[in-house]
């Protein structure tokens, strides 16, 4: 795998093809501008690394997954006196800032490889933006969540309002949680579909469960896995027929690779398990 040296994230290879990325900004893993910029840049680099097959996004903090936005950083932006002075130009300045922020979080969704969020402890505000950009979400039994932005006097603008209603499939409940800003537990998160599994225990337990799932995914064809993620995102944002047409075109190209043949041979009784070429050996520099 390529070398990474981010300041606010701890990186380690958990197993072959599985990269563990842990939010690491003490004391509360809150995101300053530098931290979210680094998040976006890191996931862009990960997506270009063909030796990675799955990413687990976790926290180094046993009590907090992420404290959300760093309020000191947010106050600096809202009180910024270096921007344009008139309202119209300042609005364009602010929009550019928010758009950059959105793109940094969307880098998780746009990453070529699937991302599993292993959430423990407190996960308010920006945590929901980050979680809903991931492909799979697990929670430890001590996890607790909230869409906190209305409590802070603003509408969530980094991805929660776009993704959360689609994830949970319940507009009424999505609006209740977004409008009230109330806390909800791991059990409620599971019941509404925000997470697909509650892991009894705390941080270490949910990371272990996420890594086990990541290992299962990493055994599969990286072409098939990357294609499945891409096509499911396309399906979310397009009609059924548009996705069927797009998928037919996609697979017309992807099925020309060796992975389907390798997978078929690997299913033969008594045969060795399939071993798929890493992405960089198929396409050179990604």
Automatic annotation (TrEMBL):
Pathway field: Lipid metabolism; fatty acid beta-oxidation
GO molecular function: delta(3,5)-delta(2,4)-dienoyl-CoA isomerase activity
UniProt KW Isomerase keyword: yes
GO annotations of cellular component type: mitochondrion
Gene3D superfamilies for the chain: 2-enoyl-CoA Hydratase, Chain A, domain 1 (3.90.226.10), Lyase 2-enoyl-coa Hydratase, Chain A, domain 2 (1.10.12.10)
GO biological process: fatty acid beta-oxidation
Descriptive protein name: ClpP/crotonase
């Amino acid at each position: 795998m390529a070398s990474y040296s981010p300041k606010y994230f701890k990186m380690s290879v958990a197993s072959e093809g599985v990269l563990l990325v842990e939010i690491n900004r003490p004391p509360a893993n809150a995101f300053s501008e530098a931290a979210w910029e680094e998040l976006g840049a890191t996931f862009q680099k990960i997506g270009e690394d063909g030796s990675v097959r799955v990413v687990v996004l976790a926290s180094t903090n046993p009590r907090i997954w992420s404290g959300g936005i760093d309020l000191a950083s947010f106050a600096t932006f809202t009180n910024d006196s270096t921007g344009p002075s008139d309202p119209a130009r300042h609005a364009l300045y602010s929009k550019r800032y928010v758009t950059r922020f959105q793109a940094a979080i969307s880098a998780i969704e746009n990453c070529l490889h699937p991302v599993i969020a292993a959430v423990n402890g407190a996960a308010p505000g920006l945590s929901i933006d980050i979680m809903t950009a991931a492909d799979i979400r697990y929670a430890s039994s001590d996890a607790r969540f909230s869409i906190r932005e209305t409590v802070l006097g603003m509408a969530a603008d980094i991805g929660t309002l776009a993704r959360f209603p689609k994830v949970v499939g319940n507009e009424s409940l999505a609006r209740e949680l977004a409008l009230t800003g109330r806390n909800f537990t791991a059990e409620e998160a599971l019941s509404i579909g925000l997470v697909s599994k509650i892991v009894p225990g705390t941080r270490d337990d949910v990371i272990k469960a996420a890594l086990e799932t990541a290992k299962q995914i990493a055994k599969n064809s990286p072409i098939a896995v990357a294609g499945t993620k891409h096509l499911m995102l396309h399906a979310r944002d397009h009609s059924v027929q548009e996705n069927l047409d797009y998928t037919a075109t996609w697979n017309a190209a992807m099925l020309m690779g060796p992975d389907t043949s390798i997978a078929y041979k690997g299913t033969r009784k008594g045969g060795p398990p399939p071993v798929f070429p890493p992405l960089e050996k198929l396409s050179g520099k990604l």
